[in-house]
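Archive entry: two folds, one per protein. Generate the first.
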Amino acid sequence: MKACLALLTAIATHCAVAGESDLRALAFVQVPNPLSGVNPTHPLIPRPLPAVGEPFRDSRFQTHQVRATTTDGIRGRHEYSRHDPFNSSQSMILLDPVELWSVYRTNSYPYNQPSNLVRVVHLEEPRWDPVDPNLIWGVQDFSVRRIDVSTGQTTVIKDFALDPTMGPIISANPVYRITMKDEGESSRDKRYWAFFLQGNDQVSYEPLFIFTWDRQTDTVLGIYPIPANERELDWVGMSVLGNWVVILGANPSGNIQGLTIANRELTSFHILRQSIGHSDVGLDVAGNEVVVGQNAGNDYVEMIPLSTSAQAVPVVRLYYDNGSPDGRRGSALHVASRQRSIVARPARRRRTGTGTRCGGRWWVAVLIVSGRYPITGKRSRRAAGVWRTDSINGSGEGWTSSLRIRTSDTKTS
């Protein structure tokens, strides 16, 4: 925990929002050993809740932040740390996961003011296209759909109820939808997809099948009927390049235990970790597919190659399961990799809780949570809204700070 917070000051200087004078103003803090867990602490300094659109500096690290949305309950926030709410040009943002999703322009604060509203999106698990800034992909019932938010036109890309392979399975079983359970995604190029076929109330909404689909060839590549002892499943999705199906489960036995990868045909499974907390898929600097996540069993944030043989790399030590040397415990984190976008564009800096892109380099962002250091007027992380910041926002109840891990600073071999 302390290692992470000390590292932030040094790393933030690489990506400061302002000019060179601001870079010089930020001091480096030496971190003797990020894996030791024994390094200087940097508790959050309480401050009044800033006004929407008002730039300010973090009291501890002097990084620029802007509160970008208003909040009403959980309205005004994006879905989850793993998913980038901005489109590929960062001109629009997807917000408000209450009943219907809303797309807003980002040319004025607050982003979610009525005059910025572009369109309401009727989709589940909506994800921006990696190239076209107007397209959003998602699912509905048994179909994959795509919406052009500039026109409102919805295109049914694939209806699996009509597929010659999946259609009979859907008809013969008590199922009601396809889903990645909100955390999974397709491959970056939208070619490969993995879904649960989720049961209805007759079977307590358990996932009954996993299947994979190649959009380019319109082929169902693999189907895995899920045994009754393997249905404690959290999410399913594809790796960034589409080489692996990635599944998170909580089963004590069977093919799917903890963090598990499978081939696209769903004929071979490999358990990477029996237990893993918040995590995300991404790429290392050499282009290898990895997962960075919280290993609650050994107290490390790890970079885990998606491979049946490569070894995990410990990145930094926190304390999830064991007590820290100074008596702290109960840390948690979110991880986000913004390697889903494939648009080549000049270095720009837009910040939300999902991470940042700076100077054309991709980063993995880790949001650290330890203890309760609320900003005045804040009552809930879920009401924290969206923030632009050059250190990922740590300004809600219990959010202390953040760490960026440049994947080129770690090795996977």
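Generate the second and append.
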Amino acid sequence: MRGHSTSVTVGSMTGSTIYAGIGNGSFPSTNSDFTSKSTISTLTVKGTYAGSYIAAANFKTLSIGPITYADNGNPFGVAALSIQQLKLLLNKRKITLRKVTTSSQVLGVFTSLGIAPQDLTFRILS
């Protein structure tokens, strides 16, 4: 997927990739990896999320859960410049974060719940 998207819903996501506006096709590690300010309005992963990559400059609503945290030492996860609303299902707990502009906002939730994210990463690259 490239460019802008209104809404994407998947049952589960294992070993998959959804990118919008990523020039080199690799999981973004800097904000310059976003070749456009593409926005995914709504992305929902209803079933298990494991070993997959999701990236777009902006998300209005991103819902993921339940999450498998380990992938045999292979980093995976989400990269974005900003996420207006992030909904996660972490160990059967529903978590909602708003106006996510730093990785530490997401990691703070994991820490407060005593969850080690293992191979899962949230790269908020604003």
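Annotation attached to the second fold: Residues 103-112 form the longest helix (10 residues). The chain has a mean pLDDT of 92.
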